[in-house]
Amino acid sequence: MPRRSLINRTIEVILLESDKHLWEKFEIVRVKPIYAKNVLLPKNIAVLATADMINKYAQKMESAKKEREKKASGFQWLLQNIEKDWGLVFTGKVNKDATLYAKIDASNIAELIKSLYGVEVEDHFFKMKKKITTIWDYMVPFIYKDIKWDISVKIVAENPEDVEKKFKAKNIEVEEKVEEVKTEEIKEKKVE
Predict the structure, then answer these.
(1) Which terminus of the chain has a smaller tally of CB atoms within 10 A, N or C?
(2) Can you tell me the distance from the alpha carbon of 140 to that of 150, in angstroms, rounded to the nearest whole number?
């Protein structure tokens, strides 16, 4: 028996509500029939994309498409401005091991963008694998439709003197150990 293609195992629906996993309102998407039957259709999140429904929602779909294009150009402007400003900078309290007390996730990035640039960005557009926990420079992927961009995020310690003391102490310890090893090697060579 021939294997069915992916297109045969999915159906098209028109979204009546935005969903962060599927996309935006009045967009045609492909989903598995069981998901449409059990979730989307009973909760009125979507309708089947039949010819009648496409004609019924054609005007709304066209205006939604224009809104998405406008939103995409706004995101393009935003991302270019963030790049001009050398990225986003977070300041947070850290412990002696340079670990943040409060982890930074996609919602924190969205809040910072809103406060700095006055633009609402949904946090699910930032594709972070895990939360940021240490001071460092990170690249956070941003994906919206055809826009794929890496945003530079820098984490700076609110109390840098504590961190510097810790790293200076570690460096001194490492240097002392290196000196001990070198002197032991010299002694061993002299003995031979």
Answers:
(1) N
(2) 5
Task: Say what percent of the chain tops pLDDT 70.
Answer: 79
Total count of residues recorded for the chain: 192
Residues 145 and 82 in one domain: yes
What contacts 136, CB < 8 A, 6 or more positions away? 154, 155
Whether 192 is covered by a domain: the verdict is no
* Domain count along the chain: 2
CA pair distance 25, 71, nearest whole angstrom: 13
Handedness of CA 119, 123, 71, 62 (dihedral sign): negative
∠ Cα 52 34 26 (to 5°): 40
- Give the CA dihedral 69, 73, 75, 78, nearest 10 degrees: -170
pLDDT exceeds cutoff 80 at 176: no
Note the pLDDT of residue 19.
Answer: 81
Q: Which of 14-28, 75-89, 172-186 has the lowest mean pLDDT?
A: 172-186
- Structure tokens given for 75: 């995101």
Please indicate, yes or no, if residue 63 is contained in any of the structural domains.
no
Mean pLDDT, the chain, integer: 85
Where is 75: in which H helix or E strand? helix 58-84
Give the residue with greater pLDDT, 146 vs 5.
146
Q: Which residue has the higher pLDDT, 184 or 77?
A: 77
Q: Closest by alpha carbon to 18, among 42, 46, 39, 54?
A: 46
